[in-house]
# Entry
Amino acid sequence: MKTSNNKPVNPLKHPDQRVGVFIDVQNMYYSAKNLYGAKVNFGNIVREAIAGRKLIRAIAYVVRTETKEEQPFFDALYNLGIETKEKPLQIFLGGEKKADWDVGIAVDIIRLASTLDAVVLVSGDGDFLPVVEYVRFNQGKQAEVMAFGETASSKLKEAADDFTDLSGDKGKFLIQDRRFNKK
# Structure
């Protein structure tokens, strides 16, 4: 089946579904930077994730530095209708830096799953496999994953009801960034 713009219709996605979008910003940022020397177009990703359904929540999990130089990016997400949850960058004594949102994202997905029909995880991180399986099999919800295919866990892709490979339409999901100077 196809829509008027000749794009295939996914029979699992219908307008009455309540959808939540959970974005692992660090995973997406580094995948786009390392693969394509580009930034991610989060607005287009959320529009694709919603797919004409009822958006309940779109949450981007971000890391805040002491300089707060990322604030314009956070403001841009907010202006796109994407809620941000911030965590400070941890810098350890030896200089090692850490900013991991995996547990926070998983907890939010589990906490909000009862209010949703479809959960869209925007991350290719294989650490999310247990939460995707839990949402599908224990909660009976539709679990969808969006990520760059080259850096996405194959097990995560297989476990999802639907996988969107963002590399399939780079013009839509990427913004070229001259600062990265790659490819």
Observations:
- The chain has a mean pLDDT of 89.
- The radius of gyration is 16 Å.
